[in-house]
Amino acid sequence: MTNVDWDAEAASFDEEPDHGLRDPEVRRAWAGRLRGWLPAREGDVLDLGCGTGSLSLLASEQGHRVTGVDLSPAMVTLAREKLAGRDAVFLVGDAAAPPVGEQRFDAVLVRHVLWALPDPGRALRHWRGLLRPDGRLVLVEGVWGSAEPVGISAERLTGLLAPITGRVSVERLSDDPLLWGGQVTDERYAVVAMDPSGQERGEAAAAGQ
Ligand SMILES: C[S@@+](CC[C@H](N)C(=O)[O-])C[C@H]1O[C@@H](n2cnc3c(N)ncnc32)[C@H](O)[C@@H]1O
């Protein structure tokens, strides 16, 4: 994927069931998962490598304000069209260092992008710094293919997150064909990693401090 011309891919990107979410069942499956991963309270979501904005739209429909960032101007144009009239902005920029200035977010959402960045650990540290207290990283990743697999395993990703975030939960997604428009056999998962400062405050409150 690192050599993919995303501008050239943009026009047909949504044809894949899990990209465009055009099938109502697939769309419902992703909407349900996303609702469980994002904060219950409406907030600010940063969708990095947002593509055509399919997950941005679901987040917006669930009441969140969305900022999307993608390196491909063609993807950003399609995302702007998809969320026209909504409380959402889309910027051309690098997911590893998104151009959001001092803005901070309740959730940083990244699907199928982290694994292809040159330094995933560095990107995660940067994203952790973009969270508000009590914020969270929502990372949807996987390992695709069998002959020459590409991607990032849940084991490696949770290893990178352990020193920089609080509670981390992993949800396996391979066994839910509704998400993918059919059966899949490779590793697919979502990780939700909580901001550690929020967790410390919660623990302190629970201990009556
Ligand atoms: C597989 S698509 C995923 C799109 C979207 N996250 C989704 O799940 O539908 C990968 C996207 O990441 C974008 N991308 C790749 N490298 C990037 C980078 N360094 N910074 C920002 N976007 C990037 C591509 O332009 C493409 O839109």
TrEMBL record:
SUPFAM superfamilies: S-adenosyl-L-methionine-dependent methyltransferases (SSF53335). Residues 46-139 form the Methyltransferase type domain. One of its GO terms (molecular function) is S-adenosylmethionine-dependent methyltransferase activity. InterPro entries: Methyltransf_11, SAM-dependent_MTases_sf. Pfam families: Methyltransf_11 (PF08241). Residues 1-17 have a biased composition (Acidic residues). Coiled coil: none annotated. Keywords: Methyltransferase, Transferase. One of its GO terms (biological process) is methylation. CDD domains: AdoMet_MTases. Residues 1-21 are annotated as: Disordered. This is SAM-dependent methyltransferase.
